[in-house]
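Hi R.,

Here are the chain sequences for the assembly we discussed:
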Amino acid sequence: MKRDEKPSLMRGSHIVAEAAVRAGCRYYFGYPITPQNELPEYMSRRLPEVGGTFVQAESEIASINMVIGASMAGARVMTSSSSPGISLKQEGISYLGGLELPAVIVNMMRGGPGLGNIAPSQSDYFQATRGGGHGDYRTIVLAPASGQELCDLTYRAFDLADHYRNPVLILADGMMGQMMEPVRFPVLRDVQKLPKKPWTITGAKGRKSHFIRSLILDPGQMEEHNWKLIRKYEQITDQEVQYETFKTEDAKLVIVAFGTAARIAKAAVKRARAEGLPVGLLRPITLWPYPKKALRELSKHAKHFFVFELNAGQMVEDVQLALKGDADVFFYGRPGGVVPNPAEIARIISRQFFQKEIV
Amino acid sequence: MKGSIKIDSNLCKGCGLCVETCPNGVIEIGSQRNGMGYFYAVAKKTSKKAENGRGCTGCTLCAIMCPEVAIEVCREER
Amino acid sequence: MKKVFSRPKLLKPNPFHYCPGCGHSLLHRVVAEVIEEMEADEIAIGIPPAGCAVLAYNYFDVDMGEAAHGRGAALATGVKRVLPDHLVFTYQGDGDIAAIGTAETVHAANRGEKITCIFVNNAVYGMTGGQMAPTTILGQPTTTSPGGRTGNRDGFPLNLSEMLAVTRGSAYIERTSVTTPAGIRATKKAVRKAFEIQLQGLGFTLVEVLSPCPTNLKMSPADACKWVDTEMVNFFPLGVIKDITAPQENHDAH
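And here is the predicted structure of the full complex:
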């Protein structure tokens, strides 16, 4: 992939927006909510420069339905929001799943439930990875942990969405959105050269008319459609799992964390290693599909897993499901938008080694 | 002017709006059921259609009012 | 003999699933005829709703994309912004457009989205079995307004078209009916005008069509039509509500 020669120093929300434009996104529909307002603001300036369209909708519900319309018409399209707004979008995300439409949705998570607060949190893990709305469906969930990854995963999200005809969710948080880091963007893509989509509704010119719908009244046909979706999800699970490991080769204890929590955990691992403790980090990059095989592989030599999340314990269930009781799983979390520092996590690592007599 | 209508008995649901609409009373609900189970509308036999002595003029009002788009109308060209 | 009336080509040969005497299929035919006469079948994109017309794509032989309940105007916004030269229309019932989709509709009108909403008002929730609609008239009994709608208990019938006429982005709004041949002709004229104004890019357009629902009114088709003509029109008067192309009008648009 060809990239800009010079890096740009930008905040997370702007990185996501620019990466989307580079990937060929020309339509953005959204509604303001903190902490992601910089993203629509950037899009409102940037999209007209590349012949695109920005619409500030009257609600999150309207904006996700505009996304559906633009996607049906064949465009690369995006919306973004933060936790309470993503709840409102779930109706449309379920339709995107049922209609098999590509779209990219960004969630800069904040503390919840309810209105919660505007501090960084990871409390929407369940909502993101279990579908979120009604019905049997999945969204691909990508969890960036750096400026460069915000860029690269956003860029990739559009390709994944088009390839699988499925919604893709970028799951970050208020901290990722506000933080400034240097990033090297891929060069602007020629939208004319993107793969054609024969299933779109663009007017029945030179072909028979067709329709896109999620209503399938016949239970037999609906079941068939469900199995078709499930087969697609199995294919995604086989091919698209992504994760990072850090110092896990000889680790007796493995921290599992994603996004902002993983950055804190990585610093804690370095501190603990300096004390001589054999600890490593597994950082899932795709939260759905989840790196279950990687966890099971690690459990061959590491019998202690420490799940750290900025919530009250959600991803820990996926870790437990993956390990099937073969290893000890310990959880530590800080919900409500509290972000602990690496020293706090390093202390907990040391305590685990001491209490559980890990040698 | 002389006209004639053709009612598609497979599409008709016997709602009777054509019967109500026809200014010359040339349509009636028949005694036969179609595949959907409805008594469908039919053009009256010639001997019966002399309500005002005019018969079908091909005015198309019945077809315009037919919710099933089941009526085709022909008219004699002058 | 010359054929003077036949099924429009843009209506697929499928039998309609609607109840006997329903106004929906009448309106389907009118819309199909207009698209055919405008030779717009290659640029037409329809957005069917949730409601009785949810299967409209089985009848219209143009590209169609189904919307969630009430979200037609938002979805059409997305389609039209990507394909600005296309003829984009939603087809929505009263519950869809005037209850759950009020916000989407008002704001699409206010943004002046170049789309056309075909709004079928039959004063009742048809598909779910006859519950009170936002447009159920006072005194009209439904399964959720037993004894007849009262303003005090149930609220009042909503005049969405008049509301939308107030928005600066709306260009053309007319209310017609499909209960008589004359009403059907007027409806066809209104739909054509709305489509033309959309393609001229003048703003948001909507045609509200009063339509009989004999099943849920518990009347014969003929009586249901009479009920619309004599009772419903008292709350929803027929005629042009807004037309920025009319020379004598002086609306504050754009």
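Strands of chain B lie at 3-7, 27-33, 39-43, 71-75. Chain B has one domain: 3-75.

Let me know if anything looks off.

Best,
T.
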